[in-house]
Structures are given as structure tokens and as C-alpha cells.
TrEMBL record:
<protein>
    <recommendedName>
        <fullName>IPT/TIG domain-containing protein</fullName>
    </recommendedName>
</protein>
<dbReference type="GO" id="GO:0017154">
    <property type="term" value="F:semaphorin receptor activity"/>
</dbReference>
<dbReference type="GO" id="GO:0030334">
    <property type="term" value="P:regulation of cell migration"/>
</dbReference>
<dbReference type="GO" id="GO:0005886">
    <property type="term" value="C:plasma membrane"/>
</dbReference>
<dbReference type="InterPro" id="IPR013783">
    <property type="entry name" value="Ig-like_fold"/>
</dbReference>
<dbReference type="InterPro" id="IPR031148">
    <property type="entry name" value="Plexin"/>
</dbReference>
<dbReference type="GO" id="GO:0002116">
    <property type="term" value="C:semaphorin receptor complex"/>
</dbReference>
<dbReference type="Pfam" id="PF01833">
    <property type="entry name" value="TIG"/>
</dbReference>
<dbReference type="InterPro" id="IPR002909">
    <property type="entry name" value="IPT_dom"/>
</dbReference>
<feature type="domain" description="IPT/TIG">
    <location>
        <begin position="117"/>
        <end position="180"/>
    </location>
</feature>
<dbReference type="InterPro" id="IPR014756">
    <property type="entry name" value="Ig_E-set"/>
</dbReference>
Length: 192
């Protein structure tokens, strides 16, 4: 089984299959980095499925390549779900560098669009994140993410140009949110 993946900013959703999840009071996931355990919360969807957010790791280090970490779950007093990667059939938790999304290139950061899709460039976009971990907001509306590769995200735009969130700008702002914790203000959008 492939191990779970995450980023230092945390918040990437991983799905866990097992049993008796519905009887655990406060299930948590943790990763161990430099001898310290970093926990995060899990939510039992039913008795056999649970969703966990990957933990946020507080570190001044700038991660540049993948790191293998010990991980496990804290489920009341159950010891068998701790340090899972030391057991047969379990890989380590893979920590990847945070993704980075580039701003629109022109000076005023306004992008004119002639199509139904918006493409945003960046790096390390899909090592740990999938489409469902990334949210693109345009003003008060969403741009539905349709594809995510290592260096590009593409999303389908709302039909009409969304209104700006505040009245200071004449164009709606484009914001990318990864895992609920990482936020990138990309620029502004003008439908052509």
C-alpha cells in the first residue's frame, strides 16, 4: 500500500478504510518530524471510512525534496494503529514541498480571458495535492478545477464574469487555496 502524502502546510485530505471508526471519540492522525509528533483531526464518515487532514508541520526549513516520515493514528487507547510504517505492507508518510502558484505575469496582474478555462502556472502542484484539495475562487464564485499537473492547474470558469469581493477593484480577484491552509493571490480577471 502506498503511504499517505502531505505538505508542510498540512490540510491535504486522505481517506482511511478500516473498521469501528464510528466508536472512536476523537480520532487523530499524526506524523513525526525530528522527534516531535504533529497531530491533525480526522472525521469518521461511517464505521469503515474516515477522512483525515494531513498535519501542519511547523518548521523554518524550506523543504525541497520528498522526506519519509513515521506516521500513525491516535484512536483512544488503540496501540496497533501507531507507527504504521514500521508494520508490514505500510509505506512511510511522504512529505513533499508546499506547492507554489505564480502570479499573472503582467505588471498590473490583470489577465484578459478569451476562453472558458483558466490556466495557472506553478511548481510542485500535484506531488501531494489532487484536484479536490485545491480551490480556485474568482471574486465570490468558484472556478471548478478540471486538471492538475506538476506545473499547471486548469479550471472551468463561471459563465459570466464574477463580481469583485470588494468595491475597490473593478475586476474579481483570483485566489488559489490548497488544503485550506495555503493561500495564493494570483491577480485579477477580466472576461474578454
Amino acid at each position: 500500500r502506498k503511504g499517505p502524502r502531505g505538505i508542510p502546510a498540512g490540510g491535504i485530505i486522505i481517506t482511511v478504510d478500516g473498521r469501528n471508526f464510528d466508536v472512536i471519540k476523537e480520532p487523530k492522525m499524526y506524523v513525526e518530524y525530528k522527534g516531535k509528533k504533529y497531530p491533525s483531526t480526522c472525521e469518521a464518515k461511517n464505521a469503515t471510512r474516515m477522512e483525515c487532514q494531513t498535519p501542519k508541520i511547523n518548521s523554518t526549513k524550506d523543504f525541497s525534496e520528498e522526506i519519509r516520515l513515521t506516521y500513525g493514528f491516535i484512536m483512544d487507547e488503540v496501540k496497533g494503529v501507531m507507527n504504521l510504517n514500521e508494520r508490514d505492507g505500510f509505506d512511510s508518510f511522504l512529505l513533499y514541498p508546499n506547492p507554489y502558484y505564480h502570479n499573472f505575469e503582467n505588471e498590473d496582474k490583470i489577465k484578459q480571458l478569451k476562453s472558458d478555462y483558466l490556466t495557472i502556472n506553478g511548481k510542485n502542484l500535484d506531488h501531494a495535492s489532487q484536484e479536490g484539495d485545491v480551490e480556485v475562487r474568482i471574486g465570490g464564485e468558484f472556478c471548478n478545477v478540471t486538471s492538475l499537473s506538476q506545473n499547471q492547474l486548469t479550471c472551468k470558469l463561471p459563465k459570466e464574469q464574477p463580481a469583485p469581493m470588494n468595491n475597490e477593484n473593478s475586476f474579481p480577484e483570483v485566489v488559489v487555496i490548497v488544503g485550506g491552509n495555503l493561500l495564493f493571490e494570483i491577480g485579477y480577471l477580466e472576461y474578454y
